[in-house]
């Protein structure tokens, strides 16, 4: 689980017409860094950016970008076809013709 802690920013100061100062505090969220999973990152390390069929499961694929990996599912009844870079029917992917989820 990834959590985000508030990050305080420098408070702006406002001077009112009658000479008093009022301080306002603004809080912003730290950037969200998703838990991408070690396996997906390991798979994508030193690979070119792109999409790759999961060698262990035709119904899944990896999306690699800048050595980060995302492990994604195809819709039920389909497999990842690297030739068209999309999910497709199993009979159209030679290595996955006998795939059953």
UniProtKB/TrEMBL annotation:
Q: Where is the composition biased (Low complexity)?
A: 13-29
Pfam families from the xrefs?
A: CBM_14
The answer to whether keyword Acetylation applies is no
Q: Output the Gene Ontology cellular-component terms.
A: extracellular region
Domain Chitin-binding type-2 intervals: 41-98
Q: Which GO terms describe its molecular function?
A: chitin binding
The question of whether Membrane is a record keyword is answered with no
Q: Which segments carry the region annotation Disordered? A: 1-33
Keywords of this entry: Chitin-binding, Disulfide bond, Glycoprotein, Repeat, Signal
Annotated InterPro entries? Chitin-bd_dom, Chitin-bd_dom_sf, Chitin_bind-dev_reg
Which PANTHER family does the UniProt entry name for this protein?
A: CHITIN BINDING PERITROPHIN-A (PTHR23301), CHITIN-BINDING TYPE-2 DOMAIN-CONTAINING PROTEIN-RELATED (PTHR23301:SF0)
Task: Name the chain's protein.
Answer: Chitin-binding type-2 domain-containing protein
Q: Which organism is it from?
A: Magallana gigas
């Amino acid at each position: 689980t990834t959590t985000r802690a508030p990050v305080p920013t420098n408070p702006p100061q406002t001077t009112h017409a009658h000479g008093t100062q009022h301080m306002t505090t603004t809080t912003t969220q730290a950037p969200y860094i998703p838990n991408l999973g070690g396996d997906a990152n390991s798979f994508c390390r030193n690979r070119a950016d792109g999409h790759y069929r999961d060698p262990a499961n035709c119904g899944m694929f990896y999306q690699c970008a800048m050595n980060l990996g995302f492990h994604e599912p195809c819709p039920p009844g389909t497999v990842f076809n690297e030739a068209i870079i999309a999910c497709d029917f199993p009979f159209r992917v030679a290595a996955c013709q006998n795939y059953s989820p």
